[in-house]
Specification:
It contains six helices and three strands; from the N terminus they run αααβααββα. With 138 residues, it is mostly helical.
Length: 138
């Protein structure tokens, strides 16, 4: 390629951002991986209501197993979204609370939950209409 063509190609590449964050890695994939699982948003929304013990959290999130709650809270702890306090009682008592960063992410999760609730019926109608016209997706 000539010097002129290379310069034009470089300019064109620079004009189009590489992804949702431009050329830098803004962490969007990490955040989407974290909130994209089945339980994280529900746990964040529940903890936004206040400090919860493990058993309270498990009862507040319908269908979550002890193992999945343990994995979800560990992932959130690892990423810095939760704080865990263990009390030396018998049986051991553990509480979870959102960190400042967790509060920020929980706000987004709460917004997603509200939007889901607000549009739930409309989505069901749209899906039924699509399925009637095109058949169900595989």
């Amino acid at each position: 390629m000539s010097v002129t063509n290379t310069a034009v190609t470089d300019q064109a590449a620079a004009a189009v951002p590489a992804g949702p964050c431009g050329d830098d890695h803004c962490g969007i994939r990490d955040t989407l991986d974290r909130i994209g699982d089945k339980w994280t948003v529900q746990v964040l929304v529940e903890l936004r209501k206040g400090v919860r013990r493990f058993g309270e959290l498990q009862r507040a999130v319908p269908g979550i197993s002890q193992r999945m709650l343990t994995l979800t809270t560990k992932r959130l702890l690892r990423d810095g979204f939760l704080e865990r306090t263990a009390y030396p009682t018998i049986p051991p008592q553990v509480e979870y609370r959102l960190t400042e960063m967790g509060e920020s992410l929980a706000g987004v999760a709460f917004y997603l939950a509200d939007g889901s609730r607000a549009h739930m019926d409309a989505v069901a109608v749209a899906r039924a209409r699509w399925d009637a016209e095109h058949g169900e997706l595989d």
